[in-house]
Amino acid sequence: MIRKMMSGALALVTMPLWAGTPDRPAYYDEGWLKINQYSPVEGFESHGSYGWHLGVGVIQTEGNRDADPELPSRSAPTQIPRLFMTRGTSWPLDFGFSFARLDENKGRQFGAHLQWTLFEGFQQPAVAIRISRMEADGLSGLEKLQTDSAILGLSYGFLRYFNFALGIGQQRHQLDIRPLDEDNAFGLSAGWREQIEKTESLWTLCLKANLFSPFFSLGIERVYTHPRQALTLAKLSYML
To answer: Which of 51, 71, 124, 140 could be joined to 239 by an S-S link, Cβ 3.0–4.6 Å?
Structure first.
């Protein structure tokens, strides 16, 4: 049942896909898929219509441990700062955005999510579905880097100031590679391209602490994907 719900939700945010199968080794670093992970670093309860939640944080990955040193590759960063914004509504519907700079400010990363809280109550867990998309552009040799995800999550508040969240879902990466010819003085394309598509499961664990409720909060989240390693996101936010 959960798998069917995730597949249906993911279909809402993805477009028809095509992946080429060139007879050459993959020309990319899987670290780009990790650093393109989206998360608002929040629980799955609804935020209500009061205030904007603005935050600054960072995403930290372990890089691509499986990289082959004999293959050409543009190494992905393992840590980048991010800006966050989350907003609730008068309905059990939240939305948010995330922005970051990549590749010495030559590239940019922009993501957004929509969350529908299915159930929440006093001293009871909140259950929600969250869909998101993260895109990166302006990267040399990478014409397209896009990640779509759908997560079913549960969160529960305890000891008044803390909130724990658990999520499980699926995500799909699309990567369109068109490397430049390094021997060409005009920076022209190398004459070939490779389109890659990957679908994987993911699990998330998030802990949020309200430092000066309800205005300041600190959140940290671990995202586990299969078969790649975990990554970490952290955010300090303030409600206007």
So the answer is: 51
